[in-house]
């Protein structure tokens, strides 16, 4: 478990992640940042694809869905962090 003093948090406006290729590139970029928690804005996420995004990220994602062409936020957690 990570102590709070070592917690690294990132926040990014991704301007839409519905495109699979863009989402994979963004997820790879996020992993390279080595943050423990990522806050993503303007994800354009919808409830129907939430399980796909969880599988692609490889860990839990908490989402608040907007409309398909606007809004939406996600919180992505690093694999070894206890949530």
UniProtKB/TrEMBL annotation:
It holds the Pfam family Exo_endo_phos. PANTHER family: AP ENDONUCLEASE (PTHR22748), DNA-(APURINIC OR APYRIMIDINIC SITE) ENDONUCLEASE (PTHR22748:SF6). Its EC number is 3.1.11.2. InterPro entries: AP_endonuc_1, Endo/exonu/phosph_ase_sf, Endo/exonuclease/phosphatase. GO terms for cellular component: nucleus. This is exodeoxyribonuclease III. Residues 11-81 form the Endonuclease/exonuclease/phosphatase domain. Belongs to the DNA repair enzymes AP/ExoA family. One of its GO terms (biological process) is base-excision repair. GO terms for molecular function: DNA-(apurinic or apyrimidinic site) endonuclease activity; double-stranded DNA 3'-5' DNA exonuclease activity; metal ion binding; phosphoric diester hydrolase activity. It is an enzyme of class 3 (hydrolase). Coiled coil: none annotated. It catalyses: Exonucleolytic cleavage in the 3'- to 5'-direction to yield nucleoside 5'-phosphates. The lineage of its organism: Eukaryota, Metazoa, Echinodermata, Eleutherozoa, Echinozoa. Its cofactor is Mg(2+). Keywords: Hydrolase, Magnesium, Metal-binding.
């Amino acid at each position: 478990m990570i102590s709070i003093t070592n917690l690294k948090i990132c926040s990014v406006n991704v301007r839409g992640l519905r495109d699979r290729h863009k989402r994979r590139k963004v997820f790879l970029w996020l992993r390279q940042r080595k943050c423990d928690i990522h806050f993503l804005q303007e994800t354009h996420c919808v409830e129907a694809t939430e399980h796909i995004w969880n599988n692609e990220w490889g860990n839990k994602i908490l989402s608040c869905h907007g409309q398909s062409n606007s809004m939406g936020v996600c919180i992505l957690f690093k694999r070894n962090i206890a949530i």
